[in-house]
Every structure is written in C-alpha cells, then in structure tokens.
Amino acid sequence: EDQVTQSPEALRLQEGESSSLNCSYTVSGLRGLFWYRQDPGKGPEFLFTLYSAGEEKEKERLKATLTKKESFLHITAPKPEDSATYLCAAPKAAGNKLTFGGGTRVLVKP
Amino acid sequence: ETGVTQSPTHLIKTRGQQVTLRCSSQSGHNTVSWYQQALGQGPQFIFQYYREEENGRGNFPPRFSGLQFPNYSSELNVNALELDDSALYLCASSIGQGYNEKLFFGSGTQLSVL
What we know:
The structure holds two protein chains of two kinds.
Chain A: E1 3-7, E2 10-14, E3 19-26, E4 33-38, E5 45-50, E6 56-59, E7 62-66, E8 70-75, E9 84-91, E10 98-100, E11 104-109
Parallel strand pairs in A: 2-11
Antiparallel strand pairs in A: 1-3, 3-8, 4-5, 4-9, 6-7, 7-8, 9-10, 9-11
Chain B: E1 5-7, E2 10-13, E3 19-24, E4 31-37, E5 44-50, E6 53-57, E7 64-68, E8 74-78, E9 87-94, E10 104-105, E11 109-113
Parallel strand pairs in B: 2-11
Antiparallel strand pairs in B: 1-3, 3-8, 4-5, 4-9, 5-6, 7-8, 9-10, 9-11
C-alpha cells in the first residue's frame, strides 16, 4: 500500500533559524513527489513537483530535494510569514490522485 | 481568472442527516477531485471526476457520492452522516488527470456533525 510519512509533526523555529522537513514514501513506480503549503482555514497551495532522484527546486527561502526514498524541504533563514503546514504527496498508481502525508506544522517566531 | 470556489464555507449537521457540498472548478479545468481532511491530518482522497465520469475512488463508503456537471462544477453528497464525517472537505481542480497535472484547491467546506 502506498504510504507517505512526514516528520517532524511540528517545528518551532526562531526567525532566521534554518531547518529541514522530511517526507519519506513507499510508492511503487513513483511518478512525482509534490509539496504543498497550507495556511489555517485555506486549501493547500502548490509549491513544487520533483520527478527524479537528485532533482532540486527552489522558491524564495524554500528548496525541495528528492532521493530514491525521501524528499526534504529545506527552509533557509525563515521569516514569520513562512509559518504554515507543509504537506508532501505522491500520485497513486494512475493519474493525479494524491496520497498525502500528515504534514509538518511550522511556526516561525520573530 | 477565478480560482476554485466552494460553498458553503461552514456547515453544521446532525448524525443521520444528508449533506451536499458544491465546488466550481477553475476556468479551463475539466477534472475535479474531492478530499477529506480531518483535524491535524493530511487530506485523504475521496474520488475524482473527469468529464462528468467518476475516475477513481479512495477508501470511502458508498454513502459518499458525487456528480460533475457539463460546466465541470461538482457536488459531493454524503448520506447518513456520522460523527467521524466531521472534517474539512476540499475540492481541487486540474487541467487533466495526468500524474503531472498539479491540483488547485479551494478553501474547503468545514463540516461539523453533532
């Protein structure tokens, strides 16, 4: 059965304190690994898609990387506005029906 | 370009009742997916509609049903509500159903079952 697991469940950072979030997956025939950001009371917002081991993508203070078994979301010098829940997801066997991890709740304090 | 809109934003029902949630997909998108997100958890896939046909279903009982209309808007119906159905229900649209087609989510409907 496809599984996506995220750690830690929650992360409290001081502004400027860099850290990494982990997403491990057991998905047969991985067809991509998605990262989303979710703010309270909102739906998830797309950040990145990674397709192959070694691939990296960046957006502002966020960088996502992918290996054969896991993905990392690195947050460099975070600001309070980076506070959110970060979700990773992988497509099921066919199409874009996603299996999500439980998310990592990130709180960045000024 | 309007995004994905869902209605209502909040809903309170009692156990055993039926509920209908609505979703308008983003312009140009022909695929709608529904997800259930319990508090503190990631979204769980309920089902997907592509050009008015169900195109895959997650591990949800038949009392969860849906429709997609010719304008690609969609409804999620839940019969015989149970307390565990309390959750945020998210609708997402995409240009197609391919594995690389990213999902655009609405803000969800918060359903409380008492």
